[in-house]
Write a structure and sequence with these properties.
By secondary structure, this protein is mainly beta. It has 2 domains: 201 residues, Sandwich (Jelly Rolls); 198 residues, Exo-inulinase, domain 1 (Jelly Rolls), CATH 2.60.120.560. Strands 1, 3, 4, 6, 9, 10, 11 and 13 form an 8-stranded antiparallel β-sheet that branches. Strands 14, 16, 17, 19, 22, 23, 24 and 26 form an 8-stranded antiparallel β-sheet that branches. A 5-stranded antiparallel β-sheet has the order 2-5-12-7-8. It starts with a helix and ends with a strand. The N terminus is likely disordered.
């Protein structure tokens, strides 16, 4: 005889089984990520029938492409498309390339995303995936001895064009299946940060994808995805993408290696903060300076070397700053180590800014790379690392400033201004309000010992 407890347990299990059976009979559920049917939340980039949504383009600089006239771009597009049609085809729901020709390139450009794709190649193949038109997540034959000098024996999935040490060039593990079998890639791209799984094994962990076309700047914030091919036939299927919006991207950035960070704003009041608190206000967990009010608010505690994380949201033409090693009085841009700009520098009203005034710059001293801010009204995630005389600013996953203030020539500072606090080794961390209600949340610091 079955007791009441056992009956209840069986009923729960039976209910779960019925629910699962009902789900798998729904159209598309059983074949999610199979038969070119997109999983929930994803969009299929290949329809299984033709090349709709794609065009041809080879290994070509996005910078040069942007510099071309509209007529020249159209002409190039037409020529590349003619080439693509000679070497790309669709067979039994699979994209097929004969190992030659231009790369298949998405018509759309993407910012942050998760990308999934399956591929099957023949021995001797050499291929890859360009992310935002930047090379590349590498695919090759691990048994091709001719390629061992390039590291093919270490496996596919690595960021082969990265040059910096321990930055994802070589995959963490060998995860390839034998040539002729299907492999599955999953790629997450947030800012310049790339994470890759090959056949469900982590092969690249949060590496900064380097900009092949311009090594001095971070990976482009937007661009198409390209399927690179040369050396032998390769087949692709189940090509899906899920765009990651600003809120989700910020959450990913905040949760990565977040150990050791201590909040410096509690979301409720000014506890632990000093300075011009009368010029700021707290609402719904957000700290902002009042409209048309200026003043610096800063931590009661002083810091030497540290990593600070925060989110900020700019109104159109919004202006604020981060006070670094601030002594507690004076203009943070000069009396402190520096003021890092928090500025909607893409706004037309700032068209004539000095380069050292753009967002993320050490005001008047060192210029940050523009082009990585999200549009006004969206939350941005920023990480600032201060160590000795060096400052690194990572905005939305991309490094836009990496400088050593001790190596700069004061004679070349903007307007010849004297930055008396530049060499401070300790001070407060703060916000330098400049009349506009720039919003901040989730401020935290980790001291570097």
């Amino acid at each position: 005889m079955i007791d009441h407890k056992t009956q209840t347990s069986l009923a729960i299990k039976l209910k779960a089984l019925i629910t699962l059976l009902a789900l798998v009979t729904l159209p598309g559920f059983a074949n999610a990520q199979e038969d070119n049917q997109a999983p929930n939340g994803f969009t299929a980039l290949f329809n299984g029938q033709d090349l709709a949504g794609w065009h041809g383009m080879g290994h070509f600089s996005p910078v040069k492409l942007a510099e071309m006239s509209e007529d020249d771009r159209k002409a190039k597009r037409a020529t590349d498309w003619e080439n693509a049609q000679q070497h790309w085809s669709v067979d039994n729901g699979e994209l097929v390339n004969d190992g030659k020709g231009v790369y298949l390139t998405t018509d759309r450009e993407y910012g942050d995303f998760e990308f999934r794709i399956d591929y099957k190649a023949v021995p001797g193949s050499d291929s890859g995936i360009y992310l935002r038109a930047n090379p590349q997540v590498q695919i090759w034959d691990v048994k091709d001895e001719d390629q061992w000098k390039h590291g093919s024996q270490k496996g596919s999935g690595g960021l082969w064009n990265n040059q910096k040490e321990n930055n994802g060039k070589d995959p963490l593990v060998l995860a390839d299946k034998p040539m002729g079998e299907w492999n599955r890639l999953r790629i997450q791209q947030v800012g310049a940060r790339t994470t890759v799984w090959l056949n469900e094994k982590l092969v690249v962990d949060w590496a900064a994808m380097e900009n092949f076309w311009d090594r001095k700047r971070a990976h482009f914030p937007n661009g198409p995805i390209q399927l690179q091919t040369h050396g032998g036939e390769i087949r692709w299927r189940n090509v899906f993408i899920k765009e990651i919006d600003a809120e989700a991207a910020n959450e990913i950035l905040a949760n990565h290696t977040n150990e050791g960070f201590t909040p410096i704003f509690n979301g409720k009041d000014f506890d632990g903060l000093a300075g011009a608190t009368d010029k700021f206000e707290v609402k719904n967990g957000i700290l902002s300076n009042k409209d048309k009010q200026s003043g610096t608010i800063y931590t009661a505690k002083e810091y030497s070397d540290f990593v600070a994380r925060l989110e900020f949201r700019l109104p159109p033409a919004g202006n604020n700053g981060l006070a670094i090693r601030y002594p507690g009085s004076g203009d943070p841009a000069y009396a402190g180590m520096c003021e890092l700009q928090i500025l909607d520098s893409e706004h037309t009203s700032y068209a004539k800014l000095d380069a050292r005034q753009h967002h993320g710059s050490a005001y008047g001293m060192a210029a940050a790379t523009p082009g990585y801010l999200r549009p006004a009204g969206q939350w941005n995630f920023q990480e600032v690392t201060v160590k000795g005389s060096t400052i690194k600013v990572e905005l939305n996953g991309s490094v836009i400033l990496d400088t050593d203030l001790s190596k700069l020539d004061p004679a070349e500072f903007k307007d010849g201004s004297e930055h008396t606090g530049k060499d401070l080794t300790q001070g407060h961390f703060g916000l330098a309000g400049h009349n506009a209600p720039v919003e901040f949340r989730n401020l935290s610091i980790k001291e570097i010992k």
